[in-house]
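Subject: Sanity check before I submit

Could someone independently write out the structure tokens for this chain? I want to compare against mine line by line before I put it in a report. The sequence has 537 residues.
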Amino acid sequence: MRRKAKSKVWSLLAAVLLLAGILSACGEGDKDGGNDAAGSPGSDAASATASQKSASALPEAAGTKVEGGKVTVLILQDLDFLDPHLAVAAGTNEVLFNVFEGLLKPNEKGELLPALAESYSVSPDGLTYTFKLRSGVKFHNGQTLTSADVKYSYSRLAGLDTGKPLQTSFEDVKSIEAPDASTVVITLKEHNSSFLTALTAAVIPNGYQDSNKNPIGTGPFKFKEYTPGQHLVVEKFPDYWQKGVPSLDQVEFKIITDPQAGLLALQSGEVDIYPRIGTEQLEQVAKDFNTISTPQNLVQLVVLNNARKPFNDIRVRQALNYAIDKDEIIEGVAQGKGTKLGSNLSPVLAKYYQAGLEDLYKTDLEKAKSLLKEAGYPNGFETTLSVPSNYQFHVDTAQVVAAQLEQIGVKVKIEPVEWAVWLDRIYKGRDYDTTIIGLDGKLDPYQILNKYLSDSPNDFFNYKNPEFDSTLRSAVAEVDDAKRIELYKKAQTILAQDAAAIYIMDPNTNVALNKKLAGYKTYPLYVQDLSSVYFTK
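---
Independent answer below. Compare away.
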């Protein structure tokens, strides 16, 4: 019976793929897109095949390091903002990571290290953070960093003058003081165990208003030019505070939204680094390029609009979860290189991860049909699944999901949408039935899960549950580490039991690189760090 069911799914998938090809040939007028400040567009890459060695960074190069040179990095989407305080798409933040820095900065292990801050201390009650700034740090315009710049930047993010925080991670900030040029004191309204991770946010010059046209930061690369839909170019900042960094003279982030065009650009030498390249494409170039494959701390999910019928009925949401075969998706789309999930947290954050939820809804078509009948849909229903068309991984997943749901009478129309429209209509406007996206991970579980809070501006799920709200808020305020861990696990469990979404997997991410390059690092965050990359000969 199991084999027959799978055979039927893949027969349906073949038909859907044919239809998708026809739709693609006709062209689509909509746009697809990004994600929220705590979330990211999903990776269109799974991992390499078993014959390829999995790695999180390139091995030490055999050749001699060469200073200078230009590297071109392929990115799959345009940037939504150049202003780092306004950018919401993870695809934008991964680029701006090279231009801006905060008081703290993550490394490739996910550890927080001092950046613009040389040191810091926290008061015994956990409410007051005092930072000593690194001396001699310069902005790209030549201005020396002072505490006034930090106060301006983080007051802007906290909305201290407007009453409207630009980032939810700063909403607990009560005041920011600059008692002298090298000291910053931040006071919180209440204890927030995740607050330090917020301080990776960009610091910009005091009073600067033109970040969206000419961004100025303190990072290893400075902004040179941006042409919408084509590229963003940064160049080496010679006065960067960390000596010897970067090695490269210039980096071009080239926007190529079509995966096949991206492959051709890589093979022709037009681009040197192709992050999040698809598995099959990675196999094609494995002999001629260095490759990396590693888990990425990302949650791929089918988002259900909890405020729209029939998804406002928990029985319908649970029915869809029972109809989905995650193992089949992982094998068929990710070629087995993905970690099955049951809630909105990846096991990369092992300390806080609630194991076992991935099997809460074991595939059971009869159970799914029974729940639909109980909810008043004995013959199923029709719905639209909106998918960002520049992420082939999500498009492929949507085709399998549609085929699986058809087995319980749910007829799914797949709607490819472009990046900008996804951001505007689906994420911001919450105008959709269902969608597939990948939400990028953070260094702290609160920054990942807080988008489900009933009053969160990022709650594009339209999920509302007072018990979840109180649990998560208790977790972030909890001082005792063991209790905080249990509360975060409880929050994940509530999301799973409510079937807030259909959580699929954390797919591996792939990168293909010019063999002359070395020093590339991957992070448990959605970033492209070019500061450590260099050429060899």
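---
OP: Matches mine. For the report I'm noting this point. The CA atoms of residues 20 and 26 lie 10 Å apart.
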